[in-house]
Design goal:
single chain; 67 residues; alpha+beta; two-stranded antiparallel ribbon; two-stranded antiparallel sheet; 3 helices
Length: 67
């Protein structure tokens, strides 16, 4: 049974941007798309990052924060 359900939707903590990660996205960047790490790899590849308290930021908000 998969550990991740797709599509997975994420929202930026700093603005209204969102990102949807599909199984195909994860499969293209990670060997096991059902691993909980797979969506994280897609987010990082697309420029998203997690803040110190687990907040998630899009690339634009990350740039504003100096990341």
């Amino acid at each position: 049974m998969p550990d991740v359900s797709y599509p997975s939707t994420y929202e930026c903590s700093g603005c209204t941007d969102g990102l949807t990660v599909t199984r195909e996205d994860a499969r293209g960047l990670y060997p096991d798309p059902d691993s909980p790490n797979a969506p994280e790899v897609v987010l990082q590849e697309r420029g998203w990052f997690k803040g110190p308290n687990g907040e998630l930021y899009c690339p634009d908000c990350g740039k504003s924060a100096g990341r």
